Amino acid sequence: MLRSCTLMIAAGAVALALTSCTPAEISPAPASSSPATVVAVVDGDTIDVATSTGEQRVRLIGIDTPEISRDGGVDDCYAQEARSYLDQLVYDRDVELVSDSTQPNTDRYGRLLRHVLIDGQSAAQLAIEAGAGTEYTYDRRYDRQSDYLAAQDRAQEAGAGLWSACP
Known about the structure:
With 167 residues, the chain is α+β, with helices and mostly antiparallel strands. The protein has one domain: CATH 2.40.50.90. Helices cover 32% and strands 25% of the residues. The protein contains five helices and eight strands; from the N terminus they run αββββαβββαβαα. The protein has helices at 2-18, 79-90, 123-129, 145-158, 162-165; strands at 33-43, 46-51, 54-60, 63-64, 94-98, 112-118, 121-122, 134-135. The strands form two sheets. Strands 1-2-3-6-5 form a five-stranded mixed barrel. The termini are far apart.
């Protein structure tokens, strides 16, 4: 009994050590990730990707950006800048789409819900840290949420992006 408790504690310590990555990195599990190429940036938190199964729309997990008006109305403050930031970061680039076991596969609009990695870094977390969006939790905590919240704190303290541009 004591030996099994010791093994469980050791296993927990190893698991904890393995989850300590640099702030914008996510270690994707091979079974839950897939390569894609970004073919369009819809707005600051939504992209279209080409995969081996065709083109799909993806909503980035953990970020919300100001809305772009689709009906000829006025965009939210910093909406175009958020879209431009994501466009410069991922458009026409190869990315890794990583599912999150804490989140549904798709949202109510049919978009895939994924962490999007560019060169091993979370595009959403990078955008949050640049002030292009805010941390967003829809229903349940997601993988590495605390890193996204810390990125938001850094952006807010620095007055980055929307934190200084918008009332």
